[in-house]
Amino acid sequence: MKKRLKLASLAIVLSVGYSYMNTAQAQNTGGWGEGAKLEDAEIVVEKNRVIELPQAARNFEKFKVNPPEAGARNVRYRFMDYKLPSQDIELQLRVLTIKQDELNKLYGNYLKAGLGNYGTLYLKGYFHNKRSKDSSYGAEVSHVSSSRGPVDRANSGTGNSSLGVHGEGYLQGLTVGGRLNYGRDKYHFYGYSPDLQGLVDKDTIRQVFNRVSADGYLHNHSAGTPFLYKAGVKVDYLKDRYDMSEANLAFKLNSEYGIDTLSGFKVDADLSVVSHKDSANVNRTLFKLAPSYERQLGALKLSLGANIAYTGDTVNDARKFNIYPAVRVGVEPIKNNLLIYAGLGGDLQRVTLYQLTQENPFLAPNVRVADINKGMEIYAGMSANLANYVHLTGRVAYQNFRNLYFYNNSKDDVSKFELVYDDGVTNVLNIYGEAVFNYSDEIRLGLKADYNKYNTASLEQPFHRPELMASVFGTYNFFDKILFNSELYYIGSSFGRIYNPNGTFELRETDNIVDLNLKADYRFSNKFTTFVMANNLFGKKYERFVNYPSKSINLIGGISYSF
């Protein structure tokens, strides 16, 4: 340490000396002449001198800033009372809402009238109340007649007229409704021999049916209660030109009770009493009771029950008391889109002349009517929806019938038909299929087929029951301006037994029927529409029943008015 201090002292001395010499040289303008000689001097350098510095004081306290002294401060507040000037302004609260779509004007009534060949007069009318949450009621009228027909002009003319009223009332949890209809159907027995054409008086072969039908019902299907029911009563009355009459009084009850969301009971009951007056008076009674239990097990739905039935028929020694099992199993692997089911059962089906004369109006007097006894049926089927546009339905069944009726030409008059029955059991294999494509309200296409293979016990053929019936249909709505309807249907041939004057008989086969019908409507406005209908465009006078050819091309055109 001391050595460092000595070296520092020496450096200081040298620096001072050098500075002094520069200063003296600057003052002497004459330079280094003789007048500028240095005087002799002695410089003593003390080597052992020690430079000592005083010890600095150390302060460990932080700098302290004293806060200002708090003084008394007086704050004054001034309150001003501001008031809005009084004004007569009515403030209203407006709630923003979405504007409701206006309901389209509803035309509850329309009239259609038209004319066609064969002296055809066409009239349809439909009248109904407008939108109402309390009731629904209306009336309909219809008249379609042809003064001439396919055989012997006026001797094959037809006429069908009807008038009906209906209504429903909607009470709290209850719906009450009813219907009343009157109909008059006129036909002629024109299936006589061609040799007699032009010789038969049409008044002697005229047939007229007067029909009255009335029914009333009530149900609580909209009540939301676990017990639902629908009860009804119906009266059908028929009278023809030959003093035949039939009255049918029927009661019907459908009920179900839901134990929970997965199971429940059903009970259906039917009672029908028929009084038939012809050459003899016949009373026929039918009663049916069908209880069942239903259970939902996941995608599986099971129904177990029985059908208990009684009939008072005596045709072919009919069985009075019958019990049929009722078992059905359904599986829905795709909810609301695919249903597969199978089951077995049986039924006693009511048959009346009211129904038969609508199916075949050329029945002879004094026919014997019996209920159909479907002794056993084994069936399976499916129903599917594809892409919300295509609906498929299929069913296969093997059935056993007793007293299944067939139509056959009468021995006494080949222009009339009798009811004949198979002496024994009639076995039937039934295959049914249907496919419907429905795209909105614009396009609708469909195909359906019904095949029945009959195996009779005593009859040579299943008279006038064709094996195959099929149809293709379609509708097209062109911008709500033009509406097209078409139907192409096929009915296979069937057989009838014809008796000759010498007592022999022969089997005659009817035609295979292929028929095309078209209809087009053109809407001028919401009120006026014109239409044209074309039936049997292929123009073939086919026979559905032996000796009864149908009309050729039948054209009808007219106009309709809605209001």
TrEMBL record:
It comes from the Bacteria. Residues 1-26 form the signal peptide. This is TonB dependent receptor. Its main location: membrane. InterPro entries: Beta-barrel_TonB_sf. Keywords: Cell outer membrane, Membrane, Signal. It comes from Pontibacter ruber. It is found in: Cell outer membrane. Residues 138-162 are annotated as: Disordered.
